[in-house]
Every structure is written in C-alpha cells, then in structure tokens.
Q: What sequence folds into this?
C-alpha cells in the first residue's frame, strides 16, 4: 500500500509540474483527488484493509493527499503569477511614446467666407433670415417686379419643378418673405444656396448668395454706398474703395453694379483686375417702389436699399481661385490651404 501511495504521489507531482495552464491543472487535480480520482479510489478501498491497519493506512493516505495538495497550490500560484505577468506584458503602455497626431479639420472656404460676411453684417446690426431653396415663381420673380413675360427672366436660367415651383435662382426671394412678415424698420441679410442652369469656369449650377435688405424712413443710395464702403474695407482691407456703375435689376431702381478697387495691385492694373484697377463684386440698388408696394409698404414714408453678393465669387477673389469647380471638388490640397 505504501508503495502504491508513493507511486500515486510521484506520478501526481510529475503531472502537476508539467501542466501548463490553469485548466490542465484542474484536470490533473480531478484525476487524482476528484470523486473518481486515484487517491479517492484508495480511500474507498479502505474497507478491505484489516481494521488494525486502517489508522496507519488512513494517515498515509492523508499525508499523500496533503503532499499533493501542497504541490498543487504551489503550481497554481505559479501559473496565476505567470498569467498575470503575461497580461501586464500585453497591456503595457509606453508612456514615453510620442502621441499620435490628430488631423485637424477646417471649415470649407465657402462656409468661412459666409461666416466672415455674416459677422461683418451682424456687427452693423443686420438680422439673419434664412429662406427656403424651393420657392414659388411668385416670390422668386413676380413679386420682385419680374412678371411672367419680363425679359429679365432670361438673365437667370431657371430649374422649374412645376409651373408654380422652382429652385430659387436668387436669395432676393427672401426680401419678399421678410417684408410680408415684418414692417419697417427692416435690416436683414439672407445667406443661402441658389440654383441656375449655368456651368463654366466661373459659374456653377448651385452656388451661394447673401442678400441684404434695409427698409426704413429716408433710406437713399448714399446709405447703400456708405455701408458698402465699410463692408469692403472689412472683407478686402482698409485701403479698398468702391465705385458704383449703373446697371439693371427689375427689383431696384436705380440699380448699380459695385466694383472695388483692386486689392492686389492697389488700382494700378494687374491680372486679377484685368488691367482695369477695378473688380466687380456685387449687385445692388434702391428697392423699386413696386416691390415695396406689393408688400404693403407705404412708399411715401419708407424706402430701402438691397444688395446681392455671390459668396463663391468673393471666395475666389480672396483666395486667388480661378475655377469655381475647385470649391466643389473637395480636393484636400485646395481646402487645406484656406484656413482663416
Ligand atoms: N439677385 C441678383 C442676382 O442674383 C443680385 C442682386 C442684385 C440682388 C441687386 C439685389 C440687388 O438685392 O439689389 O443676380
């Protein structure tokens, strides 16, 4: 019996020592100390041992069991430590490693310019009105003194959705909504997308405008000129001045085209201003009485001025972009350069 137990012990210890994982160790324990284990079988066989030998054999079995348990515990501890060491190793962080660079984004040039324009006008006390991109023929044309057969409709190639609805061709449509909803004094800008069937290096079927409208007592072309002077200095630099040229828009009378002195050559003449010293930047004028009257505004008391700015055009001038498509192609090489 003694030899048998000695053999069980030796075998068990050998197996414990070579078991690699916690699971394997558990298996070994079961095969020796478990219900159907070898040592348990010896205990079960005690009934066949003569009574006077039983205490001795019992003691031997217990000693063997304890010896195996001790080795098992040691092995368990070792394996656990090993597992912990491996985990620490795997989770190790090198705090001296340089941080990953986080790529920094910037706003799209159109958004940048729109925000700059908005800031300038907001600082002059303008409120913001955002219209809708789908408009009716009435708001986009008729109410702006451009009835059905008016030749000025040819100035803008329109995307019609139905005879009544269209994609707005100009943010000017917003003027009418504002004047219908609010009585003077009115001082608003209206930024947004507009649409025209037009496509070349300087035109895109979708582009952005910013409309401006001021209606109050005693508003004249002088107020417009004064405000524009202030505006162009803020956007193009303090040495830039304006020049008004006669033009035509159905909803303003008189109408003007606004030029700025070339901010690149200072007016001497260069490639940007095509040698003229002046650059056209926007359309404007004194609001046509017919438009005011259509919105129930008393033209004996009130008058107004309006202006429309092409946002892409300003962006192209400011950042020296010669093709409007560059603003819509999302080419990172272009977009990365423009971050004000
Ligand atoms: N709506 C005109 C266009 O898209 C721009 C414009 C010109 C707006 C004169 C105005 C204005 O408010 O007074 O071509």
A:
């Amino acid at each position: 019996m003694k030899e048998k137990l000695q053999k069980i012990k030796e075998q068990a210890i050998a197996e414990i020592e070579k078991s690699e994982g916690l699971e394997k160790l558990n298996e070994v324990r079961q095969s020796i100390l478990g219900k159907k284990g070898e040592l348990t079988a010896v205990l079960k066989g005690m009934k066949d041992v003569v009574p006077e030998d039983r205490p001795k054999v019992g003691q031997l079995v217990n000693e063997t069991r304890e010896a195996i348990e001790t080795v098992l515990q040691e092995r368990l501890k070792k394996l656990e430590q090993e597992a912990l060491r491996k985990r620490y190793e795997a989770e190790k962080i090198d705090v001296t490693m340089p941080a990953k660079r986080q790529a920094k984004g910037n706003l799209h040039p159109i958004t940048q310019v729109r925000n700059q324009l908005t800031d300038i006008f907001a600082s002059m006390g303008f409120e913001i009105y955002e219209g809708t991109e789908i408009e009716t023929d009435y708001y986009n044309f008729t109410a702006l003194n451009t009835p059905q057969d008016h030749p000025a409709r040819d100035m803008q190639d329109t995307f019609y959705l139905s005879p009544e609805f269209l994609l707005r061709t100009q943010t000017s449509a917003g003027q009418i909504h504002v004047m219908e909803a609010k009585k003077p004094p009115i001082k608003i800008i209206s930024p947004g997308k507009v649409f025209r069937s037009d496509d070349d290096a300087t035109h895109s079927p979708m582009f952005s405008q910013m409309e401006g409208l001021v209606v109050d007592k005693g508003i004249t072309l002088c107020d417009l000129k004064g405000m524009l002077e202030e505006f162009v200095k803020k956007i193009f630099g303090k040495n830039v001045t304006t020049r008004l040229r006669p033009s035509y828009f159905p909803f303003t009378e008189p109408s003007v085209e606004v030029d700025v002195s070339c901010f690149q050559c200072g007016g001497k003449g260069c490639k940007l201003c095509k040698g003229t010293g002046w650059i056209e930047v926007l359309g404007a004028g004194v609001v046509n009485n017919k438009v005011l009257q259509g919105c129930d505004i008393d033209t004996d008391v009130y008058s107004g001025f309006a202006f429309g700015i092409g946002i892409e055009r300003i962006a192209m001038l400011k950042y020296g972009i010669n093709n409007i498509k560059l603003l819509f192609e999302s080419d990172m090489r272009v977009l990365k350069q423009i971050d004000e």
User: Anything to note?
Assistant: The chain has a mean pLDDT of 92. Residues 170, 172, 211, 249, 252, 283-285, 306-308 surround 3,4-dihydroxyphenylalanine (CB under 6 Å). The longest strand covers residues 206-217. The radius of gyration is 43 Å.
